[in-house]
Design goal:
mainly beta, Immunoglobulin-like, eight-stranded mixed sheet, five-stranded antiparallel sheet, 27 strands, 50% strand, elongated, disordered N terminus
Length: 321
């Protein structure tokens, strides 16, 4: 069987509760365990009952699963599949279809001659995320009247300074932006977007310990070509967020790949536009990923820099033979 790349692993979801502590939401949990005298001493049975946020799945849904790394598939009956095995501890993974996130279990222990029932919650792959604090800097070679129009691909948009179909201002070589009598260091926008988190984001990136976040950002942003002020703006916003977690996975997106967040139309056309977005999230452990190459900003001529980020639920890729 050809490798099926299941793109949707998320264990567990992290919700923001009213209190500061974050709480884990279980996607798989045992609802009952009972002795089945019809089973032999070396037999045990798992029953997994599936549900989605919209209730039960269609009849005869196919579930692909693995038990201890061995792959198989089964049709549901009353939203349930039955897996016969031996007593002991077993690890499961479940994949419904590309519209739902894959579910991964910790070691589930079952006793001899027992029948254990588990509830399995399937969550949609589409997750509301927020493109946070994208800011745009302008560095013309001489004072220049600039018009910027944005097509933001998201909802709940917020832009500052005031945006009335366009931003119109005078940009100066030192980065100052004059809107009449008001001066700003950059343009600001953000929006919520509905995105399918791509496994491409997980192929390459960096594992960053929380207590090493500032050092990491200084190093990578220097490699990217950001100046000290731009780095300070970036780090003072994102550094404390990364530092809250024991371990983070960080992936950078550059230039054309950032068009999924918003399209920029700048007049007059700059000589160079550099866009960098940091997609990151807390992870419990390291997984297989290559260290990412960092693209460097070209600051010659009229140059524009945009940076932003997105704290994201992390998905890891999973292969079934």
């Amino acid at each position: 069987m050809k490798k099926l790349i299941a793109l949707l692993l998320l264990t567990p979801f992290i919700l923001r509760a009213e209190e500061e502590d974050r709480k884990r939401v279980m996607q798989i949990y045992r609802t009952s365990t009972e002795l089945d005298e019809n089973l032999g001493k070396q037999d045990a049975v798992y029953e997994f009952k599936f549900s989605t946020a919209y209730g039960n799945m269609p009849k005869s849904s196919e579930i692909r699963y693995s038990i201890d790394g061995k792959n198989s598939k089964a049709k549901t009956k009353n939203n349930t599949i039955i897996i016969e095995t031996n007593p002991g501890k077993h690890i499961f993974q479940f994949y419904y279809n590309e519209n739902y996130q894959e579910v991964y279990s910790d070691s589930l222990e079952i006793k001899s001659r027992h029948r254990d029932t588990y509830a399995v919650s399937l969550y949609q792959a589409y997750v509301i995320e927020e493109a946070e604090k994208p800011v745009i800097y302008f560095y013309p070679e001489e004072p220049t009247e600039v018009t910027v129009k944005m097509d933001i691909h998201g909802e709940n948009q917020f832009l500052y300074p005031a945006y009335d179909g366009a931003w119109k201002f005078t940009a100066h070589p030192n980065g100052d932006l004059n809107f009449g009598d008001e001066t700003y260091n950059y343009l600001f926008w953000e929006a919520t977007t509905r995105t399918l988190l791509s496994p491409k984001q997980m192929i390459s990136g960096f594992f960053v310990k929380g207590d090493e976040a500032v050092q990491f950002l200084e190093e990578k942003l220097t490699t990217a070509g950001l100046n000290s002020k731009e780095q300070a703006d970036f780090i003072t916003y994102w550094g404390p967020r990364l530092a809250m977690n024991k371990l983070n996975f960080v992936h950078f997106e550059f230039n054309e790949t950032c068009e999924k967040y918003a399209d920029l139309n700048i007049s007059p056309k700059p000589d160079n536009v550099y866009r960098i977005f940091m997609v990151w999230g807390s992870v419990s452990e390291r997984f297989e990923a290559e260290e990412q190459d960092i693209e460097k900003m070209n600051r010659t001529g009229f140059s524009v820099l945009e940076w932003g980020g997105q704290e994201s639920h992390i998905k890891q890729s999973f292969c079934m033979e």
